[in-house]
Amino acid sequence: MGVMPIASSTVTSGRLLSLLSLLQVRRDWPGALLAGRLGVSERTVRRDVDRLRELGYPVQAVKGPEGGYRLEAGGRMPPLLFDEEQAVALAVALRIAVGTGAGIEEAAARALATVRQVLPARLRQRVDQLEITAAGRDTQVGTDVLLALSSAIRATEEVRFDYDSPSRPAEGGPPRRVQPHHLVVRSGRWYLVGWDAVRADWRTYRVDRLRLRVPNGPRFTPREVPGGDVATFLAARFKGSDTADAWPCQGEVVLDLPIADVAPFAGDGVAEAAGPGKTRLRTGSWSWPALAASLLRFGCDVAVTGPQELRTAFAELAGRAAAAAQPRSPSPAGRGRCR
């Protein structure tokens, strides 16, 4: 993004900007169509194209019955032209780039400084008013890994990698073989969604835990994730569901608390007033014991509306809690202690 040098006149300079803007939004432009859009002759268009070439823009002539021009990718980055909305969108995107965990924070900061420097004062003020703080970025992924996975997805090539999971650390065994379909960022972490042909099932992997091996495996035929939408599919997997984006265990209770004390902590549940000082809450979790335990965090009396599985889970938790409350012999030194 840069400032176009002044040509022989203000009119010519403005026309060059208009020509560049047109060339950036369409692959091929017939010369006659460009001339009509700019309100000039085709000869003038040819002269303006030559000026753009002198400024470093790789504008190529297109052969054909009508002839025309095409803005090609060059060996270096020439100045780019953005309208006001595009410039602000670019600045916003660069500000939030630090929250992606893609290891591009420093480059994004430099790019933002470059963009901000050439913005008009009114746009610079809008961008400066945007305050974004990245939270929870405890993992980083190398840009080279993201690019390698993206390339494999486009080429429909199987990837091979070692994977360090909490339950199964990689210990030099055979690599995992996965057909990669989607690379997704969620809450500052990158995930690979792929088809495991050996297990005949979809799998989700944290990208920061995998170490790619080379070369890639054979080509494969892409398939559609269940439900057709990868974002919904991933959200469902995080809830322990294999199908819809919904908790597999859902129940309803009445809490002995006013709705003002419940609603801020209801998460994706539905809270509604159920009388003076009481709140009806419909919510879910990945298991019945987990749902019962999450409801106990409100620290009040709980009346279960349904289903029976939730009542059973409360009874089981009560028994475990009673057993945990019984005094036991001290554990050996250094074990079982909170530090």
From TrEMBL:
Q: Which InterPro entries match?
A: CBASS_pafABC_assoc_protein, DeoR_HTH, HTH_11, PafC-like, Tscrpt_reg_HTH_DeoR_CS, WCX_dom, WH-like_DNA-bd_sf, WH_DNA-bd_sf
Keyword check for Chaperone: no
Look up the domain of life of the source.
Bacteria
Give start and end of each HTH deoR-type domain: 12-67
- The residues the entry assigns to the signal sequence are none
- What keyword terms does UniProt attach to this protein? DNA-binding, Transcription, Transcription regulation
Check the record and name the PANTHER family matching this protein. PROTEIN PAFB (PTHR34580:SF3), PTHR34580
> Under which name does UniProt file this protein?
HTH type 11 transcriptional regulator
